[in-house]
Amino acid sequence: MERQMKQVDVLVIGAGPAGLAAAIAAKEDGIDNLLVLEREHNPGGILRQCIHNGFGLHRFKEEFTGPEYAQRDIDRARELGIEIQTDTTVLSVDGDHTVTCVSSAHGVEVLSAKAIVLAMGCRERPRGALGTPGTRCAGIYSAGTAQKFVNLEGYMPGKRVVILGSGDIGLIMARRMTLQGAKVLACVELMPFSSGLNRNIVQCLNDYDIPLYLSHTVIDIKGRERLTGVTVAKVDENRQPIPGSEIEFDCDTLLLSVGLIPENELSEGAGVKLSPLTSGAEVDDVLQTNVPGIFACGNVLHVHDLVDHVSNESFRAGHAAAAYVRGALACGETIDVRDGAGVRGTVPQRIRKGVNESVDLMFRPSGVFRNATCVVTCGEREIARKKAPIFTPGEMAVIKLKPEIVASLDETVTVTIERS
After folding, report:
1. Average pLDDT, the chain
2. Could you tell me the fold of the domain covering 126-258?
3. Cβ distance 387 to 399 under 8 Å?
4. Mean pLDDT over residues 111-133, rounded?
5. Is the whole-model pTM more than 0.90?
């Protein structure tokens, strides 16, 4: 028997902060035939396990915990009558907007959407991607896994902890493990700068006297059944261990906070072009990918450090998806956006030509730049500049192009950081 295909106008994949914001925007724009698919049992995404505060200051002008922030959007989605189908795993997305998913409640379903918003988030880089020598003992976790154990399931991963990597989740877990009674011996970072927000270094490490070893890495993992210790060494400018610089730590737990990777297997299956710099989709100023009618937002597009930025970006994606369904989205020739010196992974990678709307260019600095200036040029013409006391890879940089500037673009746009 041929399986009947369900038709929807806008299909959102993922019910984290990005997916919820995109769905809310599309619904508020008049899209009633709207469906959100979520593989977890509850909506809210990673925010459900982020019980620390600091969320919402930009968007709501209030400070929330992660669950509180997520609940705002969950409540709004319910008010609008948005259908969120949880416990549903998406198996494939095709370029013709056909989506196959499976759930215990509905079995295998095949959906056809006029527009799709990709909001699958990101995953943590595992130990296997690091090539760290040593035994395959218990006691090694990604920082997010440890966070889920402690905050959602009530388990303590260990009592003596070393953290490899200084991403925000790792920094936050240094504080969380300390508050739960563990001894965090050190946070070890391969690069000469932290990859996390400065406020988290201050609040999560400095306030608890947890040392941060920059330009260091773990070179050996010890233990048979359970981790018993790690060896840390200083690295040179080529990131190679320096003999004689080894430090031994007796510990039963190693947490990995070594980077996040956009969850883009579904995107690739749909024929979406990915950026080698962000590992997310290449998009234009309304977050449309190279596949017409497929949009991407949030951490599946590029890894953010503030959920407020995720929500604002995803509202744009939802509005654009709704406009696409109505046939009101202006598409056509685009202007390329490129990274210049000191800049890595600018999003969007394209701007629609002749559009009279403001555009936020977001990027990660390639290093630490103090008292520097971000300069945006169109061909040989300077179109924007922004000076800051510091640009650092741990914090997303944003520079806005005004509507009249966007409307005048006629050549490649380049974003550069210039030292003072």
Report:
1. 95
2. FAD/NAD(P)-binding domain (3.50.50)
3. no
4. 93
5. yes
**Range 333-420 classified under CATH 2.40.128:** no
Fold matches, 126-258 and 333-420: no
Per residue in 103-138, is it b (16+ CB within 10 Å) or e — as a string?
beeeeebebebbbbbbbbbbebbebeebebebeebe
Dihedral angle computed from the Cα positions of residues 67, 156, 39 and 116, in that order, rounded to the nearest 10 degrees: 60
DSSP code of 341? T
Per the CB < 8 A criterion, the answer to whether 248 and 231 are in contact is yes
Tell me what pLDDT residue 317 has. 98
Distance in angstroms (rounded) separating the CA atoms of residues 383 and 409: 9
User: Are 214 and 189 spatial neighbours (Cβ–Cβ below 8 Å)?
Assistant: yes
Tokens of 163: 């953290």
Type of residue numbered 226: R
Q: Is 143 helix (H, G, I), strand (E, B) or coil?
A: helix
Mean pLDDT, rounded, for 362-382: 95
Rounded CA-CA distance 143/299 in Å is 17
Spatial distance between the Cα atoms of 348 and 285, rounded to a whole number of angstroms: 6
Topology annotation, domain 1-123+260-331? FAD/NAD(P)-binding domain (3.50.50)
DSSP state of 138: B
Q: Which strands form 183-189's sheet, in the order they lie side by side?
A: 140-142, 253-256, 160-164, 183-189, 212-214
